[in-house]
Design goal:
By secondary structure, this protein is an alpha/beta fold. The protein has helices at residues 2-6, 10-13, 29-37, 71-78, 81-84, 87-90, 115-123, 161-169, 206-215, 234-237, 244-250, 253-260, 267-279, 283-309, 345-354, 375-389, and strands at 22-24, 43-47, 65-70, 106-108, 128-133, 150-151, 154-159, 194-197, 219-222, 228-232, 338-339, 359-363, 369-374. The chain is built from 16 helices and 13 strands. The strands form four sheets. The chain has a four-stranded mixed β-sheet. Strands 1-2-3 form a three-stranded mixed β-sheet. The protein is flat, with a radius of gyration of 22 Å.
């Protein structure tokens, strides 16, 4: 069984994965926002080849993915002091301003590459691996879309940390006895994590939010005694629209958790945001936020009316409702996912995958925050075991 696991190639992990939505580096942030709204995973890939060009003779190797843009990147960009006054102007900036300058965040990988190669790149710092996939011949007959997925006759998909962990979990017996050992025993708990006090201004966490997005973790919200209360997670923010930047700018960390929680922000918090934007004379942000709120309120009213008419056949869920800060994608609660130092590695892996997060917070018996376990921590442990088998 171990030999079979080592024989798997990257292409085996990419079966059934959808092709990447892409934008050229010449696109604007407004273009990115538009593309992200139609994306199921809340992000869009950025490429250094322009598919709007009539010249199709570029070599395939000249077409490279240089980064990934999510709604969280846009939100953090709008939270900058110089962009709060004129958010509409900020959205005219090229997407290149948000592409990470850290080398190796996105890496291209051939389908024939081994599983060990993929894990090695992730442990070196790659957050996303770009892998070519076959194009269905029938799709070649379709007209090109505004957000093309084909690059000179090829399509690509993301291979993520979650994909690799999920794949390894299907063969978890190979790693015995590691899965049954506690994360504390295995040394999987990291004590280096990002956090903010519950009553601190959410604006002070913008840098931490940006860092947590890059590292695929989260920002813990704790009280004065270090007790974990919740989190400000990129996995939740990615389901919001760009105007949640107004809430980050004006609310406390605790209020922001309530604002971005599934089901939409309470009306009183929406009013607080508007009032504070007025007090700070942020007219540009106020105008955009008000327009967004009014449009979303109309959609919410329409959705509520439709739900009432169909209530006899379909149960209504706040998790799927529209609001002034949410897209139509399914969103996560701001409630933190936690485990304990004595939790087994297998249990934590299953917990993270079931909640679609790349990490789990570790708390002691008194709920004080002890650390965090990430997919990267797990992969490092499993990788060492795989190397010993190789």
């Amino acid at each position: 069984m171990a030999v079979r696991l080592l024989a798997y190639e990257v292409s085996d992990l990419c079966l059934g994965k959808p092709p990447l939505r892409s934008l050229p580096v010449s696109a604007t942030l407004a273009d990115a926002v538009s593309a992200i709204r139609y994306s199921e995973d809340g992000c869009v890939s950025v490429w250094n080849c322009d598919h709007s060009s009539p010249d199709k003779n570029d070599a395939v190797d000249d077409c490279r993915c240089v980064g990934k843009i999510s709604m969280v990147d846009v939100i953090c960009h709008l939270c900058r002091e110089e962009n709060l006054l004129a958010p509409s102007s900020a959205l005219k900036s090229p997407v290149s301003v948000l592409v990470s300058k850290v080398p190796g965040r996105v890496r291209h990988l051939e389908p024939s590459s081994s599983l060990l190669e993929a894990i090695d790149l992730i442990l070196q710092g790659a957050q996303n691996l770009v892998v070519p996939i076959k194009i269905n011949p029938r799709r070649k007959l379709q007209k090109s879309s505004p957000n093309p997925t084909a690059h000179n006759g090829r399509e690509f998909c993301w291979l993520t940390q979650e994909d690799v962990i999920r794949f390894l979990l299907s063969s978890i017996g190979v790693f015995t006895p590691l899965p049954a050992l506690s994360i504390d025993t295995l040394g999987a708990i990291s004590t280096e994590f990002l956090s903010i006090r519950y009553h601190s201004p959410a604006a002070s966490a913008v840098g931490a939010i940006s860092s947590s997005l890059a590292e695929q973790t989260s920002v813990a919200v704790v009280d004065d005694e270090g007790i974990l209360i919740g989190e400000i997670s990129p996995f939740t923010l990615v389901c919001c629209d760009e105007m949640v930047a107004a809430a980050i700018t004006t609310l406390s960390a605790g209020d922001l958790m309530a604002y971005i929680d599934c089901g939409g922000p309470p009306e009183e918090l929406v009013r607080v945001v508007k009032a504070r934007l007025e007090d700070r004379k942020l007219e540009g942000m106020l105008e955009e936020f008000t327009i967004s709120s009014n449009v979303s309120s109309s959609l919410s009213s329409f959705s509520s009316s439709s739900d009432e008419e169909s209530s006899s056949s379909l149960p209504r869920s706040g998790r799927y409702s529209r609001s002034s800060s949410y897209s139509a994608r399914m969103v996560r609660r701001a409630e933190a996912i936690v485990c304990h130092p004595w939790s087994s590695l297998a249990a934590v892996m299953i917990q993270a995958i079931s909640h679609r997060v790349n990490y789990v917070w570790v708390v002691d018996e008194d709920c004080s925050l002890a650390g965090i376990v990430t997919f990267s921590n797990m992969l490092e442990i499993l990788y060492q075991h795989l190397q010993s088998m190789a």
